[in-house]
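Support request from a user on the community tier.

User writes: "When I paste my structure tokens into the form, the page sometimes reloads and wipes my input. The last time it worked, I copied everything first. Here is what I submitted, just in case something in the input itself triggers the reload:"
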């Protein structure tokens, strides 16, 4: 029986070899799904709302003044301290448009301005940590502030005599060190004679 199985197995092998076909080459489109749907080249699917950054969030309000026909608004860039301040007013080609101004007199620096740049709208406000208040410049002539010179712009006091524009400076006398103090002597000190 063993030779019969061997012959049957050999017959099946010869039959399968004779019926086999040469493999054909597949076209490139057959494999295109591998590189088009690759997890390394496809962008991830975004779920939920994505918040885009608003470029107006980079600006803060530095000044606002009412003028004829609206407001003059000054804004500055928060990130670039050396950038030039932008002035927005009616007829000014700054690229910004004023939508609304909300003044809140109860809160210090509580004014907010809604601006529009292109299709993007945002709110700018005063940032207390970025607002720098400069001291007003002196309006008097420094030559008039010299000691002993009367400033003609100052009013005359009721006594009728003008006082010189001098600043009083407190006199500070340093304390005497104990090593420098001399003990009092009973002998009379020699005085210089006057002639």
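"...and here is what came back when it finally went through:"
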């Amino acid at each position: 029986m063993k030779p019969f199985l061997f012959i049957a197995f050999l017959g099946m092998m010869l039959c399968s070899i004779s019926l086999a076909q040469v493999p054909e080459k597949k076209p490139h489109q057959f494999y295109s799904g591998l590189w088009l749907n690759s997890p390394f080249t496809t962008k991830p699917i975004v779920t939920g709302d994505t918040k885009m950054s608003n470029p107006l969030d980079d600006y803060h309000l530095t000044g606002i003044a009412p003028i004829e026909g609206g407001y003059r608004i000054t804004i500055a860039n928060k990130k670039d301290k050396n950038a030039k301040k932008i002035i927005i007013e009616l007829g000014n080609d700054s690229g910004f448009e004023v939508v609304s101004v909300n003044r809140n007199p109860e809160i210090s620096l509580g004014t907010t301005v809604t601006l529009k740049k292109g299709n993007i709208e945002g709110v700018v406000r005063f940032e207390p940590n970025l607002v720098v208040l400069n001291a007003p410049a002196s309006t008097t002539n420094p030559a008039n502030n010299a000691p002993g010179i009367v400033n003609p712009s100052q009013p005359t006091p009721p006594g009728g005599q003008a006082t010189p524009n001098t600043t009083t400076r407190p006199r500070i006398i340093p304390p005497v060190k104990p090593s420098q103090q001399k003990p009092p002597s009973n002998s009379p000190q020699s005085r210089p004679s006057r002639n």
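Agent notes: The reload is a front-end session timeout and is unrelated to the input. Residues 55-125 form one domain. The longest strand covers residues 59-67. Escalated to web team.
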